[in-house]
Amino acid sequence: MRVHHVDCARMLEIEPADGPDSPLRPAHAVGHVLIVETESSGLVLVDAGIGAGDIADPSGRLMDDWVEMTRPALDPATTAKAQVEALGLSPSDVRHIVVTHLHRDHAGGLSDFPDAAVHLFEAERADGGKTPAQLAHGPKWVTYDSGPGDHWNGFDGVRPLDGVAEDVLLIPLHGHTPGHAGVAVRYGDRWLLHAGDAYMYHGEVDRPEPAGHPLMDLVQASGEVDREQRLAGVARLRELVLDPGGGVEVFSAHDPWEFARYA
Ligand SMILES: [Zn+2]
């Protein structure tokens, strides 16, 4: 099994908020996507980024006000499909896509893989009316009820993916959207946990007293549906991050400094 970390939604440049002594430099926000090569289930994507359809018709699919605000690169070479091809892999081998949620910068690439099974919580599918253009092709949904599920690293209601033999888990991290999920992928003797937009800045999870980011906090506040629920999930993520021996590596969708650890 191999995991590739790619940026499928490069957006506006942001400053680190860790103070003047921070070694971090300003960087473009990313759309962190995983391309997972599995033994028996083909290619599995975690999130789909901005897709070819969005780049061809930004006004119709992304909407002018959103483009104005986030300034996406809209570079055809950054779609998940183009980056699968750039790795020498075949887009037709993408059989499964797990989405953290259905916002346009995470779901736009779904239409580039119309035959893939798209895994998500049912609550998220039911809420997906906000991105009708990205879903107009009719994704092959595989939905999971919230509620009873497995216990995994402090989370309940965790669901292994149907039809995927490898360890890929859908983890309830609701609050940013009603059915928002984290996605855990077992990678050797550890786990990668893609936390989507549960948080948007590493300062929220990498220190005992969380530190926000002026711009990313604003973006989160403008979109989140249940702050209390989101923060409960973030508290558990923080425990995982602050336990480096715990074997779980956590990262979010848009933080460029987390992405830089892998890219
Ligand atoms: Zn997002």
Please tell me about this protein's structure.
There is one protein chain. The mean pLDDT is 95. This protein has one domain (2-14, 22-259): Metallo-beta-lactamase, Chain A. It has helices at residues 52-56, 58-61, 64-70, 80-86, 104-107, 122-126, 132-135, 214-223, 227-241, 256-259, and strands spanning 2-7, 13-14, 27-28, 32-37, 43-46, 94-98, 117-121, 140-144, 150-152, 155-160, 168-172, 181-187, 190-194, 248-251. The protein is built from ten helices and 14 strands. It is 25% helix and 25% strand. A hairpin with an 8-residue loop joins strand 11 and strand 12. It has a six-stranded mixed beta sheet. Strands 9-10-11-12-13-14 form a six-stranded mixed beta sheet, covered by helices on one side. The radius of gyration is 17 Å and the shape is globular. The chain has 263 residues and is of the alpha/beta class. Residues 103, 105-106, 197, 253-254 line the site of zinc ion (ZN).
Task: Write a short abstract of this structure.
Belongs to the metallo-beta-lactamase superfamily. 25% of the residues lie in helices and 25% in strands. With 263 residues, it is α/β, with parallel strands linked by helices.
Unreliably modeled segments: none
Annotated CATH homologous superfamily: Ribonuclease Z/Hydroxyacylglutathione hydrolase-like
CATH topology: Metallo-beta-lactamase, Chain A
Q: What about the largest sheet?
A: 6 strands, mixed
Q: Give the rounded overall mean pLDDT.
A: 95
- Kindly provide the radius of gyration, computed on alpha-carbon positions and rounded to a whole number of angstroms: 17 Å
In angstroms, what separates the terminal alpha carbons? 17 Å
CATH architecture: 4-Layer Sandwich
Shape field: globular
Strand content: 15-25%
- Percent of residues in helices: 10-25%
Bound molecules: zinc ion
Q: What is the helix/strand order?
A: EEEEEHHHHEHEHHEEEEEEHHEH
Helix/strand class: alpha/beta
